[in-house]
Amino acid sequence: MDPLAAIKETFFQECEEQLAELESGLLAMEGGETDSETINAVFRAVHSIKGGAGAFSLEALIRFAHVFETALDEMRSGRLAPTSDVLKIMLRAADVLADLVRAARDGEVADETHSQALADELRGLSPDAASDETESEEDWGDFDFKPLAAAAPATTGQWRVSFRPRADLYAKANETALLLRELGRLGPIDVELDASALPSLADIDPEAAYLAWTVILTADVPEGAVREVFEFVDGDCDLEITAVGEADSSDAPAPEAAPEFDIAALLAKVQDAVAEPAPTPAIVSQPTDEPPADAPARAQVSGPSATAAAPSAGATIRVDLERVDRLIDLVGELVINQAMLSQRVMEAGLARASAVAVGLDELEQLTREIQDSVMAIRAQPVKSVFQRMPRLAREVAAMTGKQVRLVTEGEGTEVDKTVIERLADPLTHMIRNAIDHGLESTEAREAAGKPAEGLVRLSAAHRSGRIVIEVADDGGGINRPRVKAIAIERGLIAADAALSDEETDNLIFLPGFSTASEVSDISGRGVGMDVVRRSIQALGGRISITSRPGKGSTFTMSLPLTLAVLDGMVVSVAGQTLVAPLTAIIETLQPREADVHGIGGGVARVIAVRDSYVPLIDVGAALGYRTDPINPSTGVALLIEGEGGGRAALLVDAIQGQRQVVIKSLEANYRQVPGVAAATILGDGRVALILDIDTIVAVSRGADSLRSETRMAAAG
Amino acid sequence: MSLTILTVDDSRTMREMLRLALSDAGFRVVQAEDGVHGLEVLSGETPHVIVTDINMPRMDGFGFIEEVRSDPRHRGVPILVLTTESDAEKKSRARMAGATGWIVKPFNPVKLVDAIRRVAA
Questions:
Q1: Pairwise CA distance, residues A190 & A185, whole Å
Q2: Most B CBs within 10 Å: which of A1, A42, A139, A140, as the mutation test of the B interface?
């Protein structure tokens, strides 16, 4: 790739980071953290975006960022108070800035009217400061050497430059020899050293400046060009630049005759001349007692800043995702290989306590650790997706006219990158729903004695090897009578269906169900909670809802931390080896004949588990391995809990054991098979299918009793 | 012998641009992400010129310049300030801290290399 294009890509990546930083900083300020560190971080984010935009001449972005930066600078210097009104404008400005960045990235033309309006609002915040709009763009020409052809009319052929450096000039690491060299680039120079101020050696202060130079420059250039050579040392020297008159110039050697400027000779000459006073650190520090006195002070300065900075200083590297995935793939193969090796050793009849078996145990442990560490590489905090939600909440709040406060918790919770990427859509939808449908209107809230501002809480946490994400609102809760009425009206359930509260709440996950009587433009058309549930399921996750009338609803999603491995229960069914995800299994039981009852003419069976009955599904029959269900007492039942808390018992022939398996996509390698989620390779090298428990339950229920298909699906 | 340039900038974009421009010009480039990191790099490097940003987390350009100027080993190194701030106040603060010169962003590679040549012995 063209290096500049690659840098541009980096720039846009960095912009996303800065935008995230900007937003979280502004939100923190809204929450009362108006310390200078936060304000500075916010300022830096906008400043960096502007800097990069300048390098790529992204004009619209530069203009807006500049106005934004000016307002933030006012805030930084304390002239603009970070009130909630000001911060609201800034947050919207951050949104506009994000739009402009994305437009620039995609090569689109951003909506100028929108950014113009906000730019005006920002300018309105600090009327005095916003006047010098173009200054930053105009002023960067001061470093160019003007072409000689552009010489001003008032040039003469010669300049006399009298130059007497002060000690400060050297302290800032400027160098007379270099300035003379620069002058020499303009034309032939004749240099005269004035060493009359040089004291005797004993009186010399090595840090002081004693020398002065007079240079006759023969060049047809304007005074500005000569002055520019001394730009960096302006104020650190006495400088006098005068045009040498015609009369003088005739005395001076003719320009053509001027010797070729010999930089080496000049440098040598100058070095000789300044050898004594030149500030060499070794000479400086030894005679005085400076370093010892100085060192502790420095240590003090760098000490705290170094420790304070340590947490954020964690060195990182950027690695191509493909390489990580390749590594994960290989480690997956290693796990399989290790399992195969174990099995071979067992088959060879070696004793458990033999050295080989013990060594294998250690290998297994190591393999696990390697696998965990490799998975951790792909793990990222959910922050990246949580961060998009405040903006969404603001927009939905504005559209619905509701007041909303979005609180996020557990942003640092880590989960596989793929899971994070695929979380964005369902989360977006759920936050929209929570505000649009979950929260009541401001008037209704006030009438109910609640605060006018609705609260939506988005949280993430690790719980028993999974990540649990909750979206909770303090709205009115699920309106159960209405949900039921709608479900009956749409023919989703029988009019006389007796549903528990939980089952009623779960109706909203049914395909085609939408609680809003008028489809609002916010929650979209035809996209309901069923889509959310399907995307969560596709990630191997589960979603459930709890709701309390008048208090609000909570959606809870439980997701695997990675999509690469799965803790599974390995079972035998009709001579096949299958894997059931361990997370779905509550317990296993040995069915007794007396506990199993046939219903619906004996086709479907239920099993009594303590004080309730759950459907008993023969996995072999459900997958078509056999036509006749086996005698329950010869097999083992896995009591599982499906989506929404519905339970069922899966009947299998035998349990082989519990194992972590590497997931291989069946869809990618073969095709989608109903009832099968994926595949894995077992220790003996054979392929085992991983069960899609929810589909098996739903399908077999539908086959067993078509009459109540939808109702049962809702419950399961 | 090619000159070694230390660049100190918190923006990855800027670091990459500086690296590209400077290595194309034949310089050896070492980089740091902020003032604190810059000082760490200086403990193992002796650059001929330092190019630093002003606005940075942890330790800004002013602080960094002051630290370098108070370090006997590095206080003679020319330091160019690289910043979008073109106002006189920023320049004079940088100079007070001990900056040798400045480059106003956005820079082009020619301007950048030119400025380094002006201060490099």
A1: 13
A2: A140
Query: pLDDT for A155-186, tens place per residue?
Result: 557 888 888 888 888 888 888 888 888 888 88
- Note the pLDDT tens digit of each residue in B62-72: 889 888 888 88
Q: Is B58–A312 a contact, with Cβ atoms under 8 angstroms apart?
A: yes
From chain A, pick out residues whose CB is under 8 angstroms from the CB of B14: 48, 51-52, 55
Q: Are A281 and B75 in contact (CB < 8 Å)?
A: yes
The answer to whether residues A205 and A294 touch, using CB atoms and an 8 Å cutoff, is no
Does the beta-carbon distance from B106 to A54 stay under 8 Å? Answer: yes
The mean per-residue pLDDT over the stretch A395-409 comes to 87
Q: Is residue A716 within 8 Å of A697, Cβ to Cβ?
A: yes
Q: Which of A145, A281, A308 sits opposite B73 (nearest CB)?
A: A281
Of A700, A468, A697, A510, the closest CA to residue A604 belongs to: A700
Q: State percent of chain B over pLDDT 70.
A: 93
Q: How high is the pLDDT of residue A308?
A: 39
- The DSSP bridge partners found for residue A87 are none
Closest CA to A441 of A479, A395, A391, A404: A404
Contact A478, A547 (CB under 8 A): yes
**Burial code of A41-65, b = ≥16 C-beta within 10 A, e = fewer?**
bbbbbbbbbbbbbbbbebebbbbbb
For every residue of A418-455, DSSP letters joined together read: HHHHHHHHHHHHHHHHIIIIISPPHHHHHHTT--SSEE
Q: Which residues of A touch B98 (CB under 8 A)?
A: 171-173
- Smallest CA-to-CA distance from B37 within A15, A316, A36 is with A316
Chain B, residues 62-91, CB within 8 A of chain A, namely 67, 69-73, 75-79, 84-87
What is residue A594's DSSP assignment? G
ipTM of the prediction greater than 0.85, yes or no: no
The 10s digit of each residue's pLDDT in A515-529 is 544 444 444 433 577
* Tens of pLDDT, residues A266-296: 566 655 555 544 444 444 444 444 444 444 4
How far is B81 from chain A, CA to nearest CA, in Å? 11
Kind and range of the H or E run holding A306: helix A290-309
Average pLDDT, chain B: 84
Interchain CB distance below 8 Å, A302 and B86: no
Check whether A107 has a pLDDT greater than 80.
no
Residues in contact with A491: Cβ distance below 8 Å, sequence separation at least 6, in sequence order:
none
- For residue A152, count other CB atoms closer than 10 A to its CB: 11
Chain A contact for B39 (CB, 8 A cutoff): yes
**Maximum alpha-carbon separation in chain B:** 37
Neighbours of A326 (CB within 10 A): 11
Q: Which of A515, A563, A557, A554 is nearest to A534 (CA)?
A: A557
- Residue in A247, A271, A246, A177 with CA at minimum distance from that of residue A215: A177
Q: Which residue of A has its CA nearest to B34?
A: A313
Rg (CA), chain B: 13
pTM: 0.49
Q: How far apart are CA A700 and CA A296, in angstroms?
A: 78
- How far does B29 lie from chain A, in Å, by closest CA? 16
Of A698, A485, A619, A529, the residue nearest A708 (C-alpha): A698
Closest to A51 (Cβ–Cβ): which among B73, B103, B105?
B105
CB contact (8 A) between residue A55 and residue B14: yes
Average pLDDT over chain A, rounded to an integer: 76
Closest C-alpha to A61, from A152, A69, B45, A162: A69
- Do residues A390 and A503 lie in contact, with contact meaning Cβ atoms separated by under 8 Å? no
Contact A66, A136 (CB under 8 A): yes
Does B14 sit within 8 Å of A51, measured CB to CB?
yes
Please state whether the peptide bond connecting residue B106 to the residue before it is cis, i.e. omega within 30 degrees of 0: yes
